[in-house]
Specification:
Blueprint lengths: L18 E6 L2 E6 L4 H7 L6 E2 L6 E2 L12 E4 L2 E4 L9 E4 L1 E2 L17 E9 L3 H12 L4 E4 L20 H4 L5 H13 L4 E4 L2 E6 L5 E5 L2 E12 L3 E3 L12 E3 H10 L7 E5 L3 H12 L3 E7 L8 H10 L3 E3 L1 E7 L6 E6 L12 E4 L2 E4 L3 E3 L2 H8 L3 E4 L9 H19 L8 H10 L18 E5 L9 H5 L5 E3 L8 E3 L8 H5 L5 E5 L8 E6 L11 E5 L5 E11 L8 E6 L10 E2 L22 E3 L4 E2 H9 L5 H8 L11 H11 L32
Helix pairs in contact: 2-4, 2-9, 5-6, 6-7, 9-10, 13-15
Length: 689
């Protein structure tokens, strides 16, 4: 078990947790107290949780967020989602093999269902929901916050990097997991706020009540207003072999690595060059995982340039204008083949590269979890949305528009509350803005004996470097948040801007002691890849090009720098300004391999729950079937436990490829609850404590 647990992390503390014994297919194993089943299985080297009844294909983790059921296991004779179910002492867990026969041991008496009234119901305890709750709590409005996890914070819990945005409004320069704790603590101190953790919002009914499964006990909530802050779900991708175990989303990966401190892979390949994929690659390096490469279909990554630069500098290759062609393996992924594509996204012949890997991370976009808002509107309720449930953006934006939404809701209930300042809306637009133009380096003359070199060359919403500078020598050009930073004035060489930069995109060049061999100070966060005094480091420029090997003069590891080390090296003056970082991952990690491929699966799966292929659905579309409900009735695509959350987008892609416009498509009818739940729960009764 120990080999798959993270025992050292550069950012996260490793708590000493009590062991819990459980059984997997009658074999005794150890988990950690408070851990979900899926993470305990991964920690024990188990990645296959069963086999599908239709084709006996291996099933494993996929979303780790309760949105699908691919990780289903049998725990104490009941089917459960292993990613949402805590391990208990002596729990009997079994893999799902085909269609298991379950004992009929439960008898349910019909009991009264508790109905509770609140002014506001917030669905989701992530950055937007918590920020909104703080506003409502400060105005003493009776609010219930419902979240399906054991810990508040949503995706903030999974973020070990320092945040972008504004220092004043979105904690820029502070790590995401620390922000989550700060917001949760603010909520805890406000008396008008009630928090239900481990609680799932099931549906919004026509009688304006919301069904909630609180600690496995069904309750009804009657709010005056709903605020949907349920976040987003990850999109999946169609390619040959996409149904192999070991292929899953960035959220699942970050949950295992950063929340549960489990190392789920040795060799990771990433599809998607947005911020989610780029950040997940960095988190993998922090966890001691080899990142074989990252592929992006567009000519350049859609995420922040500083995130992409950071990976390249550390030794991770990024293949733009490339796509994944095929995943290979028997039951779990063993290798992946990518190829180059032209401007029309068509494969360019003879450009294949194959890499060995044991996990493929899919990070190709998000879609809002908006079903709660849509059903509330149908029921005639007042409903607001915030965060990714309203519009996909960065967490810094989600926090700020959550703050606005909270005050909007408060004003609906109490007319004496002040108007929302117009500057808030302006700032909200800034924080959700896409990356702007890219510029060249600032030319700094050497008559300034010590100065920062700013490798942040793209306009993004971020300003901690200018906020922290004690001499006001780092300034922002133009807009105080999205403008580019530049140096002007007198630098004292304190290195504060180097340590706080979320993109690790500032270095310090100091000529004061030696003009021919100045000292360069470089930010570094991967303490598990130890760098010590007198080590030789392979210095690189912003694009990862090698500039030479140089000896480390000093390593500064101060608590004031929030777990960012400052690595100092003496380098030749002619390259001092060019050095942005140094390689840590050897080139051989990312070399393509020519190897015997064990299995080639020519099918592209669109419905993982029911194992429906793109070929089956495309055949119906070509016959003139434009009603997704009819496709579901014929193929079962969308009829599985996830309720079409994954396949809906993939089937619509097939319509587009066949030239069918959106107006001609009849949408899937949503099932009457958004998350599957045993019927017995609706009988009422039980203890939610």
């Amino acid at each position: 078990m120990s080999q798959n647990r993270i025992k050292e992390h550069p950012i996260l503390p490793i708590p000493d947790r009590e062991n819990v014994r459980f059984f997997w297919n009658k074999k005794p194993l150890l988990a950690k107290k408070g851990e979900v089943i899926s993470s305990a299985l991964f920690a024990n080297g188990i990645k296959i949780f069963g086999h599908h009844p239709k084709d006996n294909s291996a099933q494993g983790i996929f979303c780790a967020n309760g949105q699908c059921a691919k990780c289903t296991v049998i725990a104490n004779a009941k089917p459960v989602k292993s990613c949402m179910t805590l391990v208990k002492e002596n729990m009997d867990v079994k893999s799902v093999e085909g269609l298991p026969k379950l004992p009929n041991t439960e008898k349910h008496e019909i009991n009264d269902i508790e109905i509770l009234e609140f002014d506001v119901l917030i669905i989701g305890g992530g950055p937007a929901g918590l920020s909104a709750a703080v506003q409502l709590g400060e105005h003493n409005i009776r609010t219930l916050i419902v979240d399906d996890k054991n810990e508040l914070g949503g995706k903030l819990v999974l973020q070990t990097h320092k945040f972008f945005g504004s220092v004043e409004d979105s904690y820029a320069g502070t790590r995401g997991n620390d922000i989550g704790k700060m917001l949760a603590e603010k909520v805890r101190k406000l008396n008008s706020l009630t928090v239900w953790r481990n609680s799932i919002a099931l549906y919004v009914y026509k009688d304006k009540k919301v069904g909630i499964l609180k600690n496995d006990v069904y309750k009804l909530i009657k709010p005056k207003i709903i605020l949907n802050a349920a976040g987003a779900r990850e999109k999946f991708l169609r390619f040959k072999g996409n149904a192999l175990a070991g292929i899953y989303g960035a959220g699942a990966f970050q949950t295992l690595v950063n929340r549960d401190l489990v190392r789920p892979t040795k060799r990771l390949f990433i599809v998607g060059g947005g911020n989610v994929g780029l950040i997940a690659g960095y988190h993998a390096l922090q966890a001691g995982i080899e990142v074989v490469g990252l592929v992006e279909a567009l000519p350049k990554c859609g995420g922040y340039k500083v995130h992409a630069d950071k990976l390249k500098r550390l030794g991770v290759p990024i293949y733009t204008s490339h796509t994944i062609k095929q995943a290979h393996g028997e039951e779990t992924i063993e290798s992946v083949t990518i190829c180059k594509i032209d401007k029309n996204f068509q494969e360019i012949p003879n450009t294949d590269k194959t890499f060995s890997c044991d996990t493929l991370l899919i990070a190709v976009g998000l879609e809002p979890v908006n079903e709660f808002a849509l059903e509330a509107e149908k029921a005639g309720m007042k409903v607001f949305s915030a965060g990714d449930a309203k519009e996909i953006a960065e967490a810094s934006s989600a926090m700020f528009n959550g703050k606005i939404a909270g005050l909007q809701v408060a004003r609906e209930l109490r007319k004496d509350i002040e108007d929302i300042p117009s500057s808030w809306y302006e700032k909200a637009e800034i924080l959700k803005s896409e990356p702007g133009k890219t510029v060249d380096y600032q030319n700094i003359e050497n008559n300034s004996k010590v100065f920062p070199v700013i490798h942040c060359l793209q306009e993004i919403p971020c300003n901690p470097c200018s906020t922290i500078c004690p001499t006001n020598s780092v300034k922002i050009k133009g807009d105080p948040i999205t403008g580019l930073p530049y140096f002007e004035g007198k630098c004292i060489g304190c290195g504060k801007c180097v340590a706080i930069c979320p993109g690790l995109a500032i270095t310090l060049v100091d000529y004061r002691k030696n003009e021919e061999f100045p000292t360069v100070t470089l930010p570094y966060e991967l303490k598990n890849h130890k760098i010590e005094k007198k080590d030789q480091i392979e210095c690189v420029d912003i694009d990862g090009n090698i500039l030479g090997e140089y000896k480390v003069k000093r390593v500064i590891d101060s608590p004031a720098n929030n777990r960012t080390q400052l690595i100092q090296a003496e380098v030749p003056a002619n390259i001092a300004k060019k050095i942005a970082s140094f390689h840590i991952q050897p080139d051989e990690v990312s070399r393509p391999e020519i190897k015997n491929i064990t299995k080639i699966d020519d099918e592209e799966m669109v419905c993982l729950c029911e194992r429906v292929t793109a070929k089956e659905v495309r055949k119906l579309i070509k016959k003139g079937v434009h009603d997704m409900n009819q496709i579901k009735a014929i193929t079962r695509a969308g009829m599985g436990p996830c309720g079409a959350k994954t396949c809906d987008n993939l089937i619509k892609q097939l319509f587009r490829e066949e030239g069918i416009s959106q107006e001609k498509i009849v949408e899937n009818t949503r099932r009457p609850v958004f998350v599957e739940v045993p019927l017995g729960k609706f009988a009422g009764g039980g203890d939610d404590e």
